[in-house]
Amino acid sequence: MSAEQSYDVIIIGGGPGGYPAAIRAAQLGMKVACIENRKRMGGTCLNIGCIPSKALLESSERFMAAKTEFTTHGIEFDGLRLNLANLLGHKDKVVSGLGDGIDYLFRKHKITRLLGTGSIAAPGQVEVAVADGARQTLLAKSIVIATGSEGATLPDVPIDEDRIASSTGALSFPEVPKHLVVIGAGYVGLELGSVWQRLGAEVTVVEYLDRITPGMDSELAQVLHKVLQHQGFEFRLSQKVTAARIEGDHVVLSVEPSSGGASEQLQADRVLVAVGRRPYTEGLGLEAIGVERDRKGFITVDAHWRTNVAGIYAIGDVIGGPMLAHKATEEGIALIEQLAGLPGHVNYDAIPAIVYTAPEAASVGQSEEALKEAGVNYKVGRFPFNANSRARAKAQTEGLAKVLADAETDRILGVHILGPEAGSLIHEAVVAMEFSGAADDIARTCHAHPTLPEALKEAAMDAGAWAIHIA
Ligand code: FAD
């Protein structure tokens, strides 16, 4: 085999796990190739996930603001209407622009980008099948699996990406549904449900559990539930969809209590199936080389992202944990740094998670339930946005900031924010937690006035029972 086909690292998958890892490897002087089977790099996140969904959320939030909030600020106008084609066009432009950006970075770093499907023939040996059926064999000292995940499905709910869509179809509905049924009240269902609800759809969310956003601090989840209900969402909690069939231009769903019981029929003109994601390892050849996976199909790795087969590593959604783009990125970069002999590290206690509804819900660290269950002696500070002057000026006063800290040491254990720009505000808490900060560290840090972050400062002050603007 020629030297050209031999690499220090080959990465299979060019999502937010794989492509930054490839760039970091190049920065550190490694010879690196990245195999990606989509034409555009960026994986699920850029093509059909984080980015297109946030573009739609931004646009639909502006439409909603024009419809309902501008009058509060004394702005009145006539003739507001939606141009869905332009709204979808903006999303597509954002995605393709960012995709071009990754291609540019790959060229700049002289990374070999292979368009095709990668499989592992043997440790140190990767095969690439390209579109015309040709195969290429490459050698590598290290192989990184970063193949991500795919949407989970329900047995009798056949997805056609038109009437019954996964999140991918729901990013491009050709018209605003009159009635959209969302199956699953996790963040994907609530975000995309919000998009279409703001654009005019009646939205019903059917959720198997008795609460929305499983895993989120339940106090915040309850407030979010109420806020979304107030916006017009209908929630059917503790219910399950057992079947769905397309009848002409609508869908008939069979819904029954999660614990079983009488089934009723629900009619919708479109359905979004958002019931979680599962690891994607198809065609990689893992069985043949003996790479271990867990019961749910996630590749098992140790603390250094090593699989049980020497020289083969895995990162991102395919290994489970929080299935988030930034978690995949951190892992990919830390792994590459370790391969280069540097002390790469990921602090799993400080990974933020955000639900981009309006208001946003953002969390880092432990929920109150998790602390209770673990028997931790904690204290809690809260501050409502309706007591924050900037939130009042914005007329966005729903929600609260909540700080959980160790009762004895004051170390921050979790921060949960539901409110305007919560997804940005949470990062102050993430940094504080990275530095093992105490609630009092945030409380005694000078925050500019009048700003939204003052709500977090006051929640931290409240953890010490000395918040100023609280009744
Ligand atoms: P992926 O992004 O899935 O990338 C893996 C890539 O590998 C894919 O492009 C795949 O086609 C390719 N591939 C697979 N097998 C092969 C093979 N054998 N050969 C070559 N290529 C292969 N996360 C957030 O953090 N924030 C958000 O706001 C957010 N919003 C989301 C919204 C939606 C609608 C969805 C569906 C997901 C969202 N996510 C979000 C989750 C996020 O997209 C994933 O956590 C992230 O993309 C995982 O990155 P990854 O690199 O592990 O895998």
TrEMBL record:
<dbReference type="Pfam" id="PF02852">
    <property type="entry name" value="Pyr_redox_dim"/>
</dbReference>
<dbReference type="InterPro" id="IPR016156">
    <property type="entry name" value="FAD/NAD-linked_Rdtase_dimer_sf"/>
</dbReference>
<feature type="domain" description="FAD/NAD(P)-binding">
    <location>
        <begin position="7"/>
        <end position="332"/>
    </location>
</feature>
<dbReference type="InterPro" id="IPR036188">
    <property type="entry name" value="FAD/NAD-bd_sf"/>
</dbReference>
<keyword id="KW-0676">Redox-active center</keyword>
<keyword id="KW-0560">Oxidoreductase</keyword>
<dbReference type="GO" id="GO:0004148">
    <property type="term" value="F:dihydrolipoyl dehydrogenase (NADH) activity"/>
</dbReference>
<keyword id="KW-1015">Disulfide bond</keyword>
<keyword id="KW-0285">Flavoprotein</keyword>
<keyword id="KW-0274">FAD</keyword>
<dbReference type="InterPro" id="IPR001100">
    <property type="entry name" value="Pyr_nuc-diS_OxRdtase"/>
</dbReference>
<dbReference type="InterPro" id="IPR004099">
    <property type="entry name" value="Pyr_nucl-diS_OxRdtase_dimer"/>
</dbReference>
<dbReference type="InterPro" id="IPR023753">
    <property type="entry name" value="FAD/NAD-binding_dom"/>
</dbReference>
<feature type="domain" description="Pyridine nucleotide-disulphide oxidoreductase dimerisation">
    <location>
        <begin position="351"/>
        <end position="460"/>
    </location>
</feature>
<protein>
    <recommendedName>
        <fullName>Dihydrolipoyl dehydrogenase</fullName>
        <ecNumber>1.8.1.4</ecNumber>
    </recommendedName>
</protein>
<dbReference type="InterPro" id="IPR050151">
    <property type="entry name" value="Class-I_Pyr_Nuc-Dis_Oxidored"/>
</dbReference>
<dbReference type="Pfam" id="PF07992">
    <property type="entry name" value="Pyr_redox_2"/>
</dbReference>
<keyword id="KW-0520">NAD</keyword>
<dbReference type="InterPro" id="IPR006258">
    <property type="entry name" value="Lipoamide_DH"/>
</dbReference>
<comment type="similarity">
    <text>Belongs to the class-I pyridine nucleotide-disulfide oxidoreductase family.</text>
</comment>
<dbReference type="InterPro" id="IPR012999">
    <property type="entry name" value="Pyr_OxRdtase_I_AS"/>
</dbReference>
